Structure formats: C-alpha cells, structure tokens
Amino acid sequence: MEHYKKNSLTLKGSVALGTGVMIGAGIFALLGQVAELSGTWFPYIFIIGAVISGFSAYSYIKVSNAYPSAGGIAMILMKAYGKTTLTAAASVLMALSMIINESLVARTFGSYTMQLFDLENNALWVPALGVALLILAYIVNISGNKFIGKTSQFMAFVKIAGILVFAIGGLWAAHFTFGDLMPTSANSEDYSAVNYIGAIALSILAFKGFTTITNSGDEIIKPHKNVGRSIIISLIICTVVYFLVAIAVNASLSIPEIVKAKDYSLAEAARPAFGNYGLYFTVGIAIVATISGIIASIFAVSRMTAMLTDMKLIPHSHFGMSGSIQKHMLIYVVVIAIALTIFFDLSRIASIGAIFYLVMDMIVHWGVFKHLRKDVKANGIILISALILDLIVLIAFLWVKASSDIFVVLVSAIGIVLVFAGEKWFLKKNKNT
Question: Which of the four, 102, 321, 339, 382, has the lowest number of CB atoms within 10 Å?
Fold first, then answer.
C-alpha cells in the first residue's frame, strides 16, 4: 500500500466511505439488537442515535475543518493533549472499535449469506465466511486509493438503492399507513428507560462510521470544506435509510420475530413481504453492504494506525516483512479482526465496540472543549452537551450489560485498562526517541 496521497478522494468518494461503514454495520448487524432492547419504538431509537451522533460529529468537524489530516482522530487528540498516554490510549481505543466493527460486519456477512443455504452448522460457517470476507477486503485494499474510492462509490450506490427498494416495497406489502408510524404500547412495561438508553448506545455505534471520513483527512479534495460536508451528508443519508428500513421491518415482523432472527432480521422480514425472491434480493444487498463496509473500514483504520506509528504513539515491528508501514498495519488489522470474528458473536462484538467508542468519544469532546475550542471556534455548550449525552448513554449501557452479560463489561474494562497501562509503559520507555 502506498503512503496517503493528497486530493485522492472526491467528496462523493469520502461520502461513500462513510456511508459504506455505517450502513454495512448499522442496518444489517444492529437493527435486531436495537429492537430487542426497545421494542416497537426501535425505529425512533435510530433517530435519537442520529441526533446524538450529530452532537458528537460537531467536535470532529470543527477540528478537521481547521486541521485536516490523514491522522484524523489521532491528530485531534494530539492537538488537544499532546504526546501523552491519554492521546495514545484514546487513539488505540478508536482503532480497536473500528477493528471490532470490521469483525461485526464480517459475521453479519456470514449470517446473511447462510440464509441462502440449508445448512445446520452455522456456528462454523458464519465465522468462516466472515474470515473469507476479511481476506478479500485485504486484497482490495492493497490495490490503492483510486480503486477503493471507485469500488466504494459503486457499492454504496447499489446498496443504498437496494435497501430503499426493500424499505418501500416492505411498507407497500404491509399496507403501511401513516397511522402505523405511532408505535404500539403493548408490552411497553417490559422496557425500562435504561433499556431504551442502552438501545441508543447501539444505534450510536451504527452511526460512528462518520469518523472514517476524519481519518481520510487531507486525502479529500478541498478538505477544509469537504470533510465537514462529507460527515453531514453521510449522517443524513444513513438516518433516512435506517428509519425507513426499521419502519418496514417493524411493519412486517413482530418484536419476538425480530429478536429471534436478530442476526439476519432484514432477510427474515423479506420473507412474508416478498417470498423467496425478496429473501434472495435482501441477502444480495446485505452481501454488497457488508463487503463495502469492510473495505471502507479497513482502508480507514490502516491509515490511522500507520499515522499512530509515525507519531510514535504505538509500537511497531516489521516481523521481517518488506514494504511500507501502512502495508504492515493493514495486515495486523485484518489478523486482529479475523481473531475477533472467530471467537466472539455479534451481540458481544457490538457491545464491546460501543463501549470503546463512547469512552474515546468523551475524551475527544473534553479535549476539544478544554484545549481547542477557541482555536477552532467551537461552541462550548455543544461540546459539553455531546460529552454529557455520551456519558449518560455509556452508564445506561454498562448497567444493561452488567445485568445481562457481565462478561462484556469485564472484557471491555480489562481491555481499556490494558490499553492505558500499555501506552503509559510504551511512552515512558520511548520518551527520548
């Protein structure tokens, strides 16, 4: 892989990268899990998640417009905190959340693809297909920016068009009326406020792909304007798509049916509306969406981790390999994603990713508020609002997971402690380099 090139991504290309990551994970991987926590209100949970993500995006837009960089989030943290443990650890948490997202999408690819076959051993085939997708994404990524940009634009168009066809067709088949926009109150007592906020946490994970754009930095043409534009356009597109699809699924299936098929809920929703042809169509779109999501995410995280290496914030070893640091980081990223795909299921992958992301996001907001807001002319009230919203969502989500799956909380806590301790040791050891 070559070093990054300025002006190698157009506005359309950067929007395609952002939507590629978001739609690949958001709709196909997380819709069922959000519905499980929030019942018939789950379409509106995505709207709330979009609003909170909009507050979060403000920090990234203001700093990226002022200082566009291929380092993206790492650059923001470096300007806010300097070369410190906080900068390094938060950057690593972001990179890990992106890699976790890749394994989430990889397993989603396996879950949807298996709907085409009558095989019983899904526990083997789902991760196997996910690993195959990750290897394919690696091959695509070594082809360079221009190929990735064109591939992402084409796949983004195909999947967004296909998902909209599914949503509109599903609403038509279910004889949808505007009166159906109001969720039913049946069994609403089964969902507490904490559950709803926990669902919001997962929906935020579905939107976090906008950070992919900040990692592209000055690779985007006219970055001082187009980084922010790309983020805003991507969030708007994904909000519309998520809401329409969620409404269509809600009209086709009951909540118990959605929860039962939560790893492939869109495919299940296509059965009553369109029969087998609808199933094949939906699975086909899911395959395109997850492939483009993996390609876009690996593209971004390999760039980010290469920049962290250049900043001397993370260790690096060539292990005897030739080529650039970016090529090495691409390999490491794919290897870690493969390991996660093999050993963790969709629900746990999504939960750990959400926790890592929210912690990193709060560190970014505080850094921009404390150290950069005057420099980048940011509104302090919006920054603090974004920080408080993240904190509320994180606390509620940890409460939900502590009650239902304490393993996720423990793994996340241990992971965060190891990242901070490891970075503190590494920076202390290399403070004179």
Answer: 321
Q: Specify the CATH number for the domain of residue 312.
A: 1.20.1740.10
Q: Say which residue, 251 or 188, is predicted with more confidence.
A: 251
In a domain, residue 240? The reply is yes
Counting every residue, how long is the chain?
Answer: 433
Domain contains 307: yes
Contact status, residue 125 vs residue 119, Cβ threshold 8 Å: yes
Q: Give the lowest-confidence range in 143-152, 195-204, 245-254, 285-294.
A: 143-152
Token code pair at residue 137:
């994404």
Cα 160 from Cα 156, distance rounded (Å): 6
| pLDDT for position 1 | 39
Is residue 220 classed as helix, strand or coil in its secondary structure?
strand
In a domain, 1, yes or no: no
- Rounded Cα distance, 347 and 104, in Å: 9
DSSP 197-217: HHHHHHHHHHHGGGHHHHHHG
Closest among 19, 59, 23 to 380, alpha carbons compared: 59
In which band, very low, low, confident or very high, does the pLDDT at 236 lie, cut at 50, 70 and 90?
Answer: very high
* pLDDT at 126 exceeding the cut of 50: yes
Assess if residue 3 is contained within a domain: no
Residues 6+ apart with CB under 8 A from 414: none
Tokens of 156: 């983004």
Q: How many structural domains compose the chain?
A: 1
CA distance 373 to 244: 36
Domain that holds residue 110: 11-429
> Could you count the other beta carbons within 10 Å of the beta carbon of residue 121?
9
- The helix, strand and coil proportions of the chain, stated in percent and rounded to the nearest 5, come to 85, 0, 15
> Per DSSP, what are the bridge partners of residue 220?
9
C-alpha 387, offset from chain centre: 19
The answer to whether 215 and 72 are in contact (CB under 8 A) is yes
